[in-house]
C-alpha cells in the first residue's frame, strides 16, 4: 500500500514517529521500535462482508459462504479426513475478490476445509474452476457427526435433521461494505513508554507525544482490525502482520468460529516469482 492511499491522520502518526525515533536515547528507541514501529507499518484496507443468516437449506452453495455447507460436484466431492467428512471454513468467489479489491487471484471458488482433530494450519485449500460450478451439479450434503472434534463446529447441520425446527444457523456473504482502513497499531506513545517524565528524558517534546496519542485515540475504533473482513490486517497475538503473508480473509470469533481464548485466524496468500498464487490458514490465541 502506497503512502498516498493511507488516511491523512495516519500519515501524521508516521511523521511524528519518525521524529520520535530520530533522537539519541538508545533505550527509548529500542522500546518504541519494539512496540510502535513494527505495528504502525502493519496496515491495510479491508472490506467487511455484508452477512445474512439463513437456514442451511436456503444457502446458496455456489456463492460466498462464511458459515455453512459449500459447493461440491463430481470431480470435487465433499472431502474426507481420517475417514470422516470434513467441515468447510469458508468459500470465496475469487472473481468477486478481484472485483472488490482490484487484485488478481485467478478464477473459481476458493474453499477451505478442516477435518476431525486436524490443526487449522493443515486445513485443505482447493479451488473449483468456474466451468465446474453449476447448481444443477450439486452433490448432497453428507451426514456429519457433530460430536466429532472440529475447529469449526458444524452447528448448521441441525437444520438438516428431520422433524427439527428450521433455524437460521448458516451465514451467507451477500456483498461487501465500503473499504475501511485497518492497522495493528493499538497502543499510544505514553501507553507503551509510561508517564511523561519517562519521555522528558528522551528529549521528545511532550506536546508531540500528546498529539500522537490523541490522533490514535480519535481513530482507534475506525481503524480497528477486529471483525471478519476481506483483506485488511488483524489483531496481533502470537504473530504480527510483518511475520506473515497478506491476508485474503481475517476471521474473528463469531458465527461458529472459536479460535481459542480471544483468538483469531487468517486465510493468507502468497505469490511466487512466476505470479502463481497459493493459500494457507493460520491462527493464534492468548
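^ C-alpha cells above, recovered residues below v
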Amino acid at each position: 500500500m502506497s503512502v498516498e492511499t493511507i488516511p491523512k491522520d495516519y500519515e501524521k502518526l508516521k511523521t511524528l514517529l519518525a521524529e520520535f525515533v530520530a533522537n539519541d536515547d538508545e533505550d527509548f528507541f529500542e522500546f518504541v521500535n519494539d512496540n510502535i514501529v513494527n505495528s504502525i507499518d502493519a496496515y491495510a484496507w479491508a472490506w467487511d462482508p455484508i452477512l445474512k443468516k439463513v437456514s442451511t437449506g436456503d444457502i446458496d452453495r455456489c456463492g460466498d459462504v462464511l458459515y455453512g455447507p459449500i459447493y461440491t460436484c463430481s470431480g470435487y466431492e465433499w472431502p474426507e479426513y481420517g475417514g470422516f467428512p470434513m467441515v468447510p471454513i469458508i468459500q470465496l468467489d475469487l472473481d468477486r475478490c478481484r472485483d472488490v479489491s482490484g487484485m488478481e487471484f485467478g478464477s473459481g471458488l476458493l474453499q477451505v476445509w478442516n477435518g476431525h482433530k486436524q490443526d487449522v494450519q493443515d486445513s485443505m485449500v482447493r479451488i473449483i474452476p468456474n466451468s465446474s460450478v453449476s447448481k444443477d451439479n450439486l452433490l448432497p450434503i453428507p451426514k456429519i457427526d457433530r460430536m466429532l472434534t472440529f475447529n469449526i463446529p458444524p452447528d448448521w447441520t441441525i437444520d438438516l435433521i428431520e422433524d427439527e425446527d428450521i433455524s437460521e444457523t448458516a451465514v451467507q456473504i451477500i456483498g461487501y461494505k465500503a473499504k475501511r482502513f485497518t492497522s495493528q497499531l493499538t497502543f499510544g506513545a505514553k501507553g507503551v513508554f509510561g508517564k511523561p517524565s519517562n519521555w522528558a528524558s528522551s528529549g521528545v517534546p511532550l506536546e508531540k507525544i500528546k498529539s500522537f496519542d490523541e490522533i490514535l485515540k480519535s481513530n482507534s475504533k475506525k481503524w480497528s482490525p477486529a471483525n471478519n473482513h476481506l483483506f485488511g490486517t488483524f489483531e496481533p497475538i502470537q504473530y504480527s502482520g510483518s511475520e506473515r503473508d497478506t491476508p485474503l480473509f481475517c476471521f474473528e470469533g463469531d458465527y461458529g468460529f472459536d479460535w481459542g481464548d480471544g483468538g483469531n485466524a487468517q486465510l493468507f496468500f502468497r505469490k511466487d516469482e512466476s505470479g502463481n498464487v497459493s493459500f494457507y490458514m493460520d491462527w493464534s490465541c492468548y
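The chain has six helices and 14 strands.
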